[in-house]
Structure formats: C-alpha cells, structure tokens
Amino acid sequence: MSDNEQAREEVDSVAMTVQEKTERDSTAEIGRKIRLRRRIRNRSLADVAEAAGLSIGLLSQIERGTSGASIRSLQLICQALNMPIGWVFDGDETEHSDVIVTQASRRRLDFNANGMMKELLSPDSVPGIQLMRIVIQPGGNSGPEPYNAEKGAKSGIVLSGTLGLEVDKIEYTAMTGDSFAFDGTKMHRFWCIGTVPTELIWAVTPALY
User: Which domains does the chain have, with CATH numbers?
Assistant: First the structure.
C-alpha cells in the first residue's frame, strides 16, 4: 500500500468515527428532549408508550439514546406528548440555555384552525412555570368549549388588541394594558375581540408544553 493510499484510509476512518459520534450525539439529544417533555407533561413511560402504540422498552431506549427512532415512531411519540415533531430537531441549544431563551430559539405552536399562535418564552429547565406570547387573529379563539387544568394558575397581560375571557361562565373584556389572573382549575376560554389581532403574554403554572 502506498503512502497516499494509507493516508486516504486514515482520513476515511477518522471521518467515519466523527460521523458515528455525531449520530450517537443526535440520538441522545432527541431522547433527552422527549424525556424532558414527558416529565413536563407529567406523563409516565407506560402512559406515553400506550398512547403512541409503542412498547415501554422501546420508548425507554429512545429516551436513553440507546436506540434510534424512526420518523414514524417520533411522530407517534410527539402526538402523544402534544408537541410538534420539529422540537426534537431543534438546532444549537447554546441559544436556549437553562436560563435565557433568545428570540431566535423560541418554540412555536401554531393552532391554525383556531387562528392562534403561541411562542414559548421560558426555558424547559423550569417546569414549575411557563411563559408564552400568544397572538390571536380576529375570529380566533382557544376553542368552542371551556376547559381547565388539574392544578395551577394562569395570568397574563394584553399587549395589543382586545381579549375576551370567560372564567366559570362569567365573561370579561381585557383591553390593551389590562392584566388578569385566575385559578387554572376553573373552566375558561378566551378569544380575540374586534378586527385587529390580540397579542398577550400568558403565564401558566405548572408548564403545559
């Protein structure tokens, strides 16, 4: 074997090692994000595995990064956790630390059918509270029926537009600059009033997404 051939083999070997490490790191990172999201949602392995139609063992291996997941499996897991599949493929997390969430790294939830968009403003490392920016288009709403949470509280401030808010069958109107808070266990719903979008900052305890 010539010196050039040997050098090429060494380069190929190093490249393969780097590729394998990258793939392992990617698999581990996807698993970490799924595990974190499951814990934020307060769901057990068995609960999510059943909802996704997967075995508990496979889901555990995916979370620990010892087994890769097919796109179909990831879709099923994300559906079970009510999270967009794109979240598991987020890029460089140096922009999304345990304390700071930069504007570029905000996670988005688009509820197009309801004319509403949510951006998560708080980091995943603090599941006790979650801060969101919500934009509701004219005619948009949280859904036709009131809903509630098992525990916690909700609070917010209207940045622009006008918000309609129903809490325990009582309707309120919150104008730009108005703020609100209520027990999350109460039945509630909210919507945009008027012909311009409603933008608000919404806080919830504990984290929902």
Answer: 3-89 (1.10.260.40), 95-205 (2.60.120.10)
